């Protein structure tokens, strides 16, 4: 094959070099578009875990491709705790702190504590690049607040993903209300303009379920090499519907659902062809009596106890089940 | 008057019926006269041995002084014709003994050890011989074969100068000896008897009974290793004067003897048959060419050593959603449409089609959580065909004597221009044609082979295919 034009050469080179899967992604909304999750949620630390937040903080990571050298911004939608969207307990008296970290200690592949799963340890590791505390502030209600600009090279470099890793921690530092918010990783401070090749991930998803029967939320854990089975843990599901695990090879494996203020765990076997792709955890609301304002937490770990990443934009795309019809001859029944 | 003619007509026709029946059965044997027969002499009673054929002949033993019996007949002696190759024999050589050229030495058999020979000779009569009209009776003698000599001769325990005892045949294990005798107490003429070897000695002779022994003369018993007893009889109902029959011991009693087909039996005298273990080849004596000679018979029956077992056409299938069957419970309902208006529900279902065809199987899936129905989530084209094989349509079992129809009409060999349907019924009989009828005379399990073949076609050889099926034959109550 003779390639004449430079653009073809670039495309061909891109394919041959096997650029990281991130390169095709633009997972800047958090929750992601495919996740169909209305809001992330973090309660003030005086709240009750039965309200759907087990630890009152949430850690999210952003990956910026090494080749991307322009400044970027992390925009937080509705960062305050009051007004629309947020969950009031008595009166809005909560304060929420958002902190952005970069540099050494951020990359969870190199620093287990950074994942935010080990309570009491330093999930705030790294260089603090920016932070801001929000109370019940109308000027931020239902609006974006922008952190940045940040220089991509300020992140913690991850060779596997060929990306710089940044971290944003949301903490409910006072009060007991639930702050519902979203993120957007943007190349523009005032608009949501995706950063080419970027993605976002977390290890513990705290989010708000939809308040209608039909909407199905999704999260997309990535199945890395060597995973034989995964152990899911979900918290405070209030028996609100069903969780189904879907992949190209799973039409919908039901996962046991937790009750109010408790965790439930179960194992899900992984088939070899599923390695290197994402699973689709689907959250179906219970039909009949509507459970409103249900906040839930889910984490996944592999058979060795290592936490799995949930990517806002699923690696390898949204898995679609591929039915496989088989048949064989049998002896007729007499 | 009319009745009288009718009776005469029936009386004339009845004897012809067996011949007509035989004519429907294709000949399954070929016979040929053996090259070692001495022309102009009587050559009789073959015995198959490892190196060739032992037989008896009254041909000249010595060019100078050949003895003859008192009534002027030449004496028989025992000869062996050794194999030259797989199809021809060397010149016969005499097996000499002290009795050679003094007495008739005739029909024999060889023991399982391959060395001990039981043969028929004349019993020395002592004082009885003083009567010049007295004819020596035959008896059985035992000898060891040493080169071309028979040594260590000894008489059989039940020889008797007052009657004939001869034509011995030993069972495969050597525990039974069968022979012919006109000893008193028989059913007429000579009868067949056996003795059992008990504690190193032969038991008293036992008559084989009226099914085997007729009012006529039964001679030349031959107990084949398969357990079939062949013998010669001049009973009515044969083809010639002497004919060869076979019977088997079945639950302690002998079956009705069967007349061997032509061309083994002929309108002449045919007697003293022996056969190789597989019954596909053997020898017998016949005077069909005006003198006693030994003939070889070979079976022309085709039987494949390797023949596929008939596979019953089966149009039943199990359908499954391969991923669904890995899990015990899934919140889905799997609804199948089999393409023939039949449906079933479940992750694994079974369905039998009525016959060959091309069917589109469709799977609809109902999500029990969302109540969402995915129509035609997956479909598959299933091509249902009959097995490509010759096909035997026949009942699995039948009673003895009852005719059954066998058909090859359901043979499914696309592209074959079949020119011959050949049936091997497993009882040394065959049939030709797509549809045949068959009745079995004996109970047992018969392995039927259907062999179909094509004529050679331009650019290719003839093709053959074989399929087999067992038919169990029960005794008729």
Mean pLDDT across every amino acid position of chain A:
84
Please state the CA-atom Rg of chain A, rounded to the nearest Å.
Answer: 21 Å
% residues in beta strands of chain B: 35-45%
Alpha-beta classification of chain B: mainly beta
Radius of gyration of chain B: 32 Å
Number of strands of chain A: 21
| Class per helix and strand makeup of chain A | mainly beta
Which regions of chain B have little confidence, pLDDT < 50, spanning 5+ residues? 1-24
Q: What is the mean predicted local confidence, pLDDT of chain B?
A: 88
Q: State the separation between the terminal residues of chain B, measured CA to CA.
A: 40 Å
Fraction of residues of chain B in helices?
under 10%
**Hey, roughly how much beta strand do the residues of chain A contain?**
35-45%
Distance between the termini of chain A: 62 Å
Number of strands of chain B: 36
| Helix percentage of chain A | under 10%
- Main pleated sheet of chain B: 6 strands, mixed
Main interface: chain pair and counts: A-B, 24 and 29 residues
Map the helices and strands:
The complex is a heterodimer of chains A (about 325) and B (about 475).
Chain A: H1 6-17, E1 29-30, E2 39-43, E3 57-65, E4 72-77, E5 95-102, E6 127-134, E7 144-150, E8 156-158, E9 163-174, E10 178-186, E11 199-202, E12 204-208, E13 216-219, E14 229-235, E15 242-246, E16 253-255, E17 263-269, E18 280-284, E19 295-302, E20 310-311, E21 325-329
Antiparallel strand pairs in A: 1-10, 2-10, 2-12, 3-9, 3-11, 4-7, 4-10, 5-6, 5-9, 8-9, 11-20, 12-19, 13-18, 14-17, 14-19, 15-16, 15-18
Chain B: H1 2-13, H2 16-24, E1 29-33, E2 43-49, E3 52-57, E4 77-82, E5 93-94, E6 108-110, E7 116-122, E8 138-146, E9 149-155, E10 165-170, E11 176-181, E12 191-198, E13 201-202, E14 206-207, E15 218-223, E16 228-233, E17 243-250, E18 253-254, E19 258-259, E20 270-275, E21 281-286, E22 293-299, E23 308-309, E24 316-321, E25 332-337, E26 343-345, E27 348-352, E28 357-367, E29 373-384, E30 397-399, E31 403-407, E32 418-424, E33 430-432, E34 435-439, E35 444-454, E36 464-474
Parallel strand pairs in B: 23-36, 30-36
Antiparallel strand pairs in B: 1-22, 2-3, 3-4, 4-5, 6-7, 7-8, 8-9, 10-11, 11-12, 12-13, 12-14, 15-16, 16-17, 17-18, 17-19, 20-21, 21-22, 24-27, 25-26, 25-28, 28-29, 31-34, 32-33, 32-35, 35-36
